[in-house]
Amino acid sequence: LHRTYKTSVRVVSLLSQRHFHNRHQWLQQQQVNRILASNYSTTFSVSQSSFTSTPKSSIMTDIFSSLTSPPAPKSTLVPPGKCQFTAEFTSCKLLEKKSVSETSSVLRFELPDTSKALNLSTCACILARLELKKANEELEQVIRPYTPISTNELIGSFDLLVKHYPNSKMSGHMYEMNVNDTLDFKHIDFNVKIQAPFKPCTRIGMIVGGTGITPMIQALHAILGSGGEETPIKVDMLYGSRTSDDILGKELLDKWAKENKDLFSVTHV
Fold first, then answer.
1. Strands of 139-146's sheet, edge to edge?
2. Cα–Cα separations (whole angstroms), residue 6 to 138, 180, 216
């Protein structure tokens, strides 16, 4: 990729992969794809003068809302430092949990300020903390990063797509959580990565694996949804999955590639 695109930014996200073995699991996985396709509308920071206000929705949408078709790419700019979560952990109540496959669930948590959006910046993540009591009565802290699948248009809450791994302390705990149970979250400056616009680059290569597609979808919202730029950025994505049934967000990516042939291409491996 470096030899091919000398001016490119390499955006690498190699995270967990999903593998399903039968048609029942494949059908359930399509629910995950549609959730990713319908919920992503990302936020990006450029300079204070270029930020646009985030559209607000006062209605608490259903956790499976807008699943019929993927939205058009949309760039909604929110600067770093505006996230509701700070460097201190805050307890958030679980509002709803839905199983979307035999191994994955969507969990909706209440925000500290229910009148505002999460306001998470470009490709950033939040940290979840679980405190477990060990045999000697000492507390063990388990901390894991998550990228929400909901957008900054969702007011008062945020959604996480969680893969439940065998013997995983955090995802196992989330799987067992009940409505009104709480989990701690925070956001730190280290979790804010490269921000839009990605100038002076005119071509970007993305290498993606599994759930690493989530921050890349955020980046695509900013690039493809900006519109009207004199020198648009072209994106070439290399997306690795174990099987063709294992591709998260495939409906969204295929639609965007078809509608933006000159700007976006995706190759599945």
1. 139-146, 126-133, 182-186, 90-99, 104-110, 157-163
2. 52, 51, 20
- Neighbouring residues of 12: CB distance < 8 A, sequence distance ≥ 6: 206, 207
Which of 107, 180, 119 is CA-nearest to residue 154? 119
Q: Which residues, other chains included, contact 82 with Cβ-Cβ below 8 Å and sequence gap of 6+?
A: 119, 121
Query: Which residues make Cβ contacts (< 8 Å) with residue 217, sequence separation at least 6?
Result: 36, 40, 42, 249, 252
pLDDT by position in tens, the chain (length 269): 433 333 333 443 433 334 434 445 555 555 545 544 444 433 333 333 333 333 444 344 555 443 334 567 777 668 888 999 999 999 999 999 988 666 777 899 999 999 999 998 877 889 999 998 887 888 899 999 998 877 777 899 998 878 788 888 999 999 999 999 999 999 998 877 777 778 788 899 999 987 788 788 778 888 888 776 677 899 999 999 877 776 777 877 888 999 999 999 999 99
Residue 230 to residue 259: CA distance in whole angstroms = 19
Cα separations in angstroms, 37 against 1, 86, 110, 131, 206: 27, 28, 22, 33, 18
User: Measured between alpha carbons, how far is residue 114 from residues 62, 84, 266 in Å?
Assistant: 16, 10, 37
Look at the block and give the residue holding tokens 């495939």: 250
Round to the nearest angstrom and report the end-to-end CA distance of the chain: 15
Whole-angstrom distance, CA of residue 138 vs CA of residue 247: 41
Among 82, 4, 71, 8, CA closest to 44: 82
Residue with tokens 């929110």: 78
